[in-house]
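User: I'm curious whether this sequence folds into something compact or stays loose and floppy. Could you predict its structure so I can see for myself?
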Amino acid sequence: MRRILIVDDQKGVRRLLQELFKKDGWEVSIANDGREAVECAGNLKPDIILMDMKMPSMNGLDASRQILAQDSELMIIMMTAYGEMDIVREALEVGVRKCITKPFDIIHLRDMVNQLYEQKAS
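Assistant: Here's the prediction. I'll summarize afterward.
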């Protein structure tokens, strides 16, 4: 079973992405912020993490650093606001595999996730 962890402090975004990926056959887990994401990543061992950048208590970049320090093979897609190119650069340097700018096309995001998973599986 393909497992995805969705990390976003906005309930509406979490719900939308959860429904999208469940329909696509993924086992979906949810985290509300970076701290929760670090815990969940260690316990759940997801194949892919969709990580929002701006969240309270711990942002996506710090959470990604901690998660990738424990498992450098984990695939993280960072969701950032338009124009945060310095953060995108830093995220990629840390080991985040892809970045997508909000607002995004959910079909494009779904395709990006599936392509990353297929690369990992092959």
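Summary: The longest strand covers residues 75-81. The radius of gyration is 13 Å.
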